[in-house]
Specification:
Strand order of the largest sheet: 1-2-8
Family: Belongs to the cytochrome P450 family.
Number of strands: 10
Protein name: Cytochrome P450
Distance between the termini: 52 Å
InterPro entries: Cyt_P450, Cyt_P450_B, Cyt_P450_sf
Number of helices: 18
Shape: globular
Organism: Streptomyces eurythermus
Order of helices and strands: HHEEHEHHHHEHHHHHHHHEEEEHHEEH
Strand content: 5-15%
Length: 414
């Protein structure tokens, strides 16, 4: 075991991580399993890079998500008011167990399966607007609105209240360092949004998830008011944010690897396996949510002191050749089971069944409608969001160049 006492390494230049996270994390992974680094906030952190260590750490109960277990004067992170901060990403059992159990019923396989036809209908309607266009941004007109519509319908958010939601979420997840006031404005906007939405649902409950959670809060007293609002915030943001980038990255990867797209179109049975491989190959979350050891803990032979910040690199783990042979190659026939894009352990993504279903339908509907779809720019010219929290495209310019049709994928995900 080792415990480095030298000062943390200088932070990797943010531009490197935005443009080439797999190269940077890969280099660090081969240098060692755990690195004491300086984070982008200027504070020390421990970066874990190898698959086995990352997977084990994700399920280790000694690694807390509760910020109260952070060393005093250490991790600062995103500043949210208590009404938005009392969510599952900041909780350990037993509170985490209690709240997760209440919301898990919304994401059962049966409930998700019941959404399949409405999701396909929504995807087809969005694609109708792309017909006849020479070039279009697939993020703005398809990959982003589809998850927004689905998750807002699930929660019961009225159409008239959805306009500013994407801008607020983008400002929080990918903040502009030159415009810090935008993140503050986004927090204020979201807080006001959820306050009004919950008041409306209390006055006029409906058959939706948010009305059901309000009933749990008001009738059964199993949620605090902050927990109620924070849960609604998390479901809406996570249900939108990660799925947008899972879909966008998947389409970009397939268009950049036409032989893989051709194989998928030739064999609809590959769709489920392809979704897992696409999530592994270029998933939407490069780093898991930060964790804090509740006691001194050994990771990869390195002792990490209690209370210090631990960052688990999913991007590095997914390209670890010890777990995935030839990891930098996209191979939709690969068994990518065990990837960590949707988490692992008690914090495994609640919405994983919904995200998989939406992605499968999004890909199927898109390539059904536009079999000749192609990138409008070279793959290396696609611009990524400047964020370490999420890996997504600012835009995905494509040329539809296809005729309405029915691909072999339809049978699998239609």
């Amino acid at each position: 075991m080792s415990n480095p006492t030298s000062p943390p390494k200088p932070a990797v230049a943010p531009g490197e991580l935005f443009e080439d996270p797999y190269g940077v994390y890969g280099r660090l992974r081969e240098e060692g399993p755990v690195h004491r680094i300086t984070g982008t906030d200027g504070l020390p952190a421990w970066l874990v890079t190898r698959y086995d260590d990352v997977r084990q750490a994700l399920a280790d109960p000694r690694l807390s998500l509760d910020k109260r277990n952070a060393t005093q004067g250490g991790y600062r992170g995103m500043s949210l008011p208590p009404a938005l901060d009392a969510n599952l990403l900041n909780m350990d059992p037993p509170d985490h167990t209690r709240i997760r159990r209440m919301v898990s019923k919304a994401f059962t396989p049966r409930r998700v399966e019941a959404l399949r036809v409405p999701v396909r209908r929504t995807a087809d309607r969005l694609l109708d607007s792309l017909s006849g266009q020479d070039e279009v941004d697939l993020i703005a007109f398809y990959a982003a609105p589809l998850p927004i519509i689905v998750i807002c319908d699930l929660l019961g958010v009225p159409q008239t209240r959805r306009a500013d939601f994407r801008a607020w979420t983008d400002a929080l997840v990918a903040p502009d360092p030159t415009r810090p006031e935008r993140a503050r404005e986004a927090v204020g906007g979201l807080l006001s949004f959820f306050t009004r939405l919950i008041a409306d649902k209390r006055a006029r409950p409906a058959d939706d998830l948010l009305s059901a959670l309000i009933a749990v809060r008001d009738q059964e007293d199993r949620l605090s008011e902050d927990e109620l609002m924070s849960l609604a915030f998390l479901v809406l943001v996570a249900g939108y944010e990660n799925t947008v980038h899972l879909i966008g990255n998947a389409v970009a990867a397939l268009l950049a690897h036409p032989e893989q797209l051709a194989a998928l179109r030739a064999d609809a049975a590959l769709l489920d396996r392809a979704i897992e491989e696409l999530a592994r190959y270029d998933g939407p979350v490069p780093l898991a949510i930060r964790r804090f050891p509740t006691e001194d803990i050994v990771i990869g032979g390195v002792t990490v002191p209690a209370g210090e910040t631990v960052l688990l690199s999913l991007a590095a783990a997914h390209r670890d050749p010890r777990r995935f042979p030839d990891p930098d190659r996209l191979d939709i026939g690969r068994d990518a089971g065990g990837h960590l894009a949707l988490g692992h352990g008690i914090h495994y993504c609640l919405g994983a069944p919904l995200a998989r279903m939406e992605t499968g339908i999004a890909l199927t509907a898109l390539f059904d409608r536009f079999p000749g779809l192609s990138l409008a720019v070279p793959p290396h010219d696609l611009r990524r969001r400047p964020s370490m929290r999420s890996r997504g495209l600012l835009a995905l310019p494509v040329r539809p160049a296809g005729r309405p049709g029915r691909s072999d994928l339809h049978a699998s995900a239609g």
